[in-house]
Specification:
Blueprint: E1 2-6, H1 10-14, H2 29-41, E2 45-50, H3 52-60, E3 67-70, H4 83-90, E4 95-96, H5 100-107, H6 109-118, E5 126-129, E6 144-148, E7 162-163, H7 166-180, E8 184-188, E9 194-200, E10 207-216, H8 224-228, H9 230-233, E11 234-238, H10 241-258, E12 263-270, E13 276-282, H11 293-300, H12 305-321
Parallel strand pairs: 1-2, 1-3, 3-4
Antiparallel strand pairs: 5-8, 6-7, 6-8, 9-10, 9-12, 10-11, 12-13
Helix pairs in contact: 2-12, 6-10
């Protein structure tokens, strides 16, 4: 079986003048190498393709693959993670991980919350602010947490995301509207413990393979800067027994409500009463073998990188074959 790999290589964009912020979610060559090596160890023939632009060129040149392992994040817009799956759909080429609808839905944290909440999954109350005048309509209890509605890897989250007054709220919302050119998601702050849970599979076959508690120094938010320097700022620990079942149950319920497939992560946080709430889903979770959250938490439960990759491929092939 010939497996193509789609990915956004950060150095490819940096060489073409894109900024570090624009490429914050993109992968290093070592991640692509690890994925390709793992697939080869499973006996697959592999072919690196690259990003959406390179995929289009390859398709136009007549190249095809039996399946594509897609970790491409996309560059611009709230549908950026949907681009590669949507292109592959048009060529009837199957791929690993969720399709364009799920990718777009999950990237928009407000819509994702609406979907999982409708399925009975606990979420923090919140509103979407597209215009500063929208703030006059809200009735939320301080403190609040403010972030861009469609960013990943903690982009747009800073120490100022936690706001206690209207002036702080207005300032943060104005910054997000101007800096990210997208609505701000304003939510009642969840002050409790933070977790991320790894999921493999689809529908009733989906399983929570484990989870970890994320403890940031000085109660820092889990921002892109903190994630990039996690060894300095973060402590990760396996789920405690007293909270493990609830975290896995909430994560699995959210995963199924979103109809996500193959593998990913679900981020959770406890509210003022200790109830575990959904924050966001990551159907395109990072797969750096050393530094990404899904491989890190998997190792805590004895699942090494090669085994994790085999679980993902097995789940994808089972789903595709029906």
């Amino acid at each position: 079986m010939k497996v193509g790999l789609t990915f956004d290589l950060r150095s490819w964009y940096i060489d073409r003048g894109y900024s570090m912020d624009e490429t914050a979610e993109f992968d290093k060559q070592e991640t692509v190498d690890a994925l390709e090596n793992s697939l080869k160890l499973m006996g697959y023939e592999t072919e690196p393709i690259g990003n959406a632009f390179q995929l289009i060129e390859a398709l136009a040149a007549g190249k095809r693959w039996d399946i594509v392992f897609n970790i491409a994040e996309g560059l611009y817009g709230d549908g950026r993670e949907s681009v590669v799956p949507a292109i592959l759909d048009q060529y009837k080429i199957p791929y690993v991980f969720s399709g364009p609808v799920i990718m777009g839905l999950s990237l928009n944290k407000h819509i994702a919350k609406l979907v999982v909440s409708a399925a009975g999954v606990p979420v923090s109350p919140g509103i979407l602010v597209s215009n500063i005048k929208d703030l006059d309509k809200y009735n939320l209890e301080y403190p609040l947490f403010v972030k861009p509605v469609s960013e990943g890897t903690g982009k747009g989250i800073t120490a100022k995301s936690l706001v206690n007054t209207y002036d702080e709220l207005k300032s943060m919302v104005e910054w997000i509207l101007a800096e990210f050119r997208q609505p701000a998601l304003v939510e009642e702050y969840l002050p409790g413990r933070e977790f991320t849970v790894g999921i493999v599979g689809y529908g009733e076959d989906a399983v929570a393979i484990g989870g970890m508690e994320v403890i940031c120094a000085n109660n820092l938010p889990y921002s892109v800067e903190v994630k990039e320097n996690y060894q300095e700022y973060c402590t990760y620990k396996p789920l405690d027994e007293d909270i493990s079942a609830e975290c896995k149950s909430v994560a699995l319920s959210a995963w199924k409500a979103l109809d996500a497939v193959d593998a990913g992560r679900v981020d959770l946080k406890a509210d003022r009463k200790g109830r575990i709430c959904f924050i966001e889903a990551n159907p395109l979770a990072g797969l750096n073998p050393v530094h990404s959250d899904l491989p890190i938490l998997s190792r805590m439960y004895g699942i090494q990188y090669q085994e994790l990759m085999e679980m993902i491929m097995k789940a994808a092939i089972k789903r595709i074959k029906g």
